Amino acid sequence: MNLTLPEDGRVLRPGKLLCIGKNYAKHAAEMQSAVPEDPLIFLKPSTALVGDGGVIVLPALSADVHHEVELVAVIGRGGAGIPEREALAHVAAYAVGLDMTARDLQARAKQKGQPWSVSKGFDTFAPLGGLAPARTVPDPQDLDLRLTVNGETRQAGHTGDMVFSVATLIAYCSRIFTLEPGDLLFTGTPEGVGPVQDGDVLEAVASGLPPLRVTVRRA
Predict the structure, then answer these.
(1) Domain holding 105: CATH number?
(2) How far apart are CA 209 and CA 187, in angstroms?
(3) How far apart are CA 86 and CA 81, in angstroms?
(4) Global model pTM greater than 0.85
(5) Where are any strands of DSSP class E within the chain?
(6) Cα 176 to Cα 173: distance, rounded to the nearest angstrom
(7) How many folded domains does the chain comprise?
(8) What whole-number distance in Å separates Cα of residue 76 and Cα of residue 12?
(9) Residue 172: what are its φ and ψ, rounded to 5°?
(10) pLDDT tens, residue by residue, 105-159
(11) Given a cut of 80, is residue 28 above it in pLDDT?
């Protein structure tokens, strides 16, 4: 899945999927976790991406896959050590996305002190909606997020409730990883995460961004 930037038509191959955990206090609480002092970063492979109208495949290895709706920032201009005051200038577009999680595998990994990569990285575990030019999003901290499953609202939040803002996250991540055009930043999910089942229809929306609609199928 390639990314076509709406502003200039550039086609980018997706790079790193930088994902942020526990970036909403109420979600951290529902996971019985404390809010981290620094951003909690994990990675997904680009092969996890699936576009609007696609299918989330429930893997045979998991019996408990959960939805997590998120604002996603698409990096258009790379850099390292980016100052926070300049961070948003590196964003080419925004989208609504989903961070799908095999919660049973994640819980098992946590108990053993192991990484989360398997629980987060299956193919189709990073659905991504259409891209909106960054200039059309004057403040990424003033967006409503909502996810419905079969027409029923499961998650509803506001990006102003993020523990770490989009600008803070970009600056922080760029101190660790050199950011490159095509990198995607999944900025964390509000409360209300829960399981999905074979046949479910998920619809995610964020203020002013193209909606995302995907269906769920068992492998």
Answers:
(1) 3.90.850.10
(2) 15
(3) 10
(4) yes
(5) 3-4, 11-12, 17-21, 40-44, 49-51, 55-58, 65-67, 69-75, 91-98, 101-102, 126-128, 132-133, 144-149, 152-158, 184-186, 194-195, 201-206, 212-218
(6) 5
(7) 1
(8) 9
(9) -65, -50
(10) 999 999 999 998 999 999 999 999 999 999 999 999 999 999 999 999 999 999 9
(11) no
Kindly report the number of other CB atoms within 10 A of residue 109's CB atom.
17
**Which domain does 18 fall in, by range?**
3-218
Structure tokens at 84: 């926070």
When the pLDDT of each residue in the chain is averaged and rounded to a whole number, the result is 96
Distance CA 162, CA 164 (A): 5
How, if at all, do strands 152-158 and 212-218 pair?
unpaired
- pLDDT over 90 at 34, yes or no: no
User: pLDDT-derived band of residue 87, with 50, 70 and 90 as boundaries?
Assistant: very high
Q: Check if the beta carbon of residue 159 is closer than 8 Å to that of residue 185.
A: no
Side-chain-side CA neighbours of residue 133 (13 Å) = 7
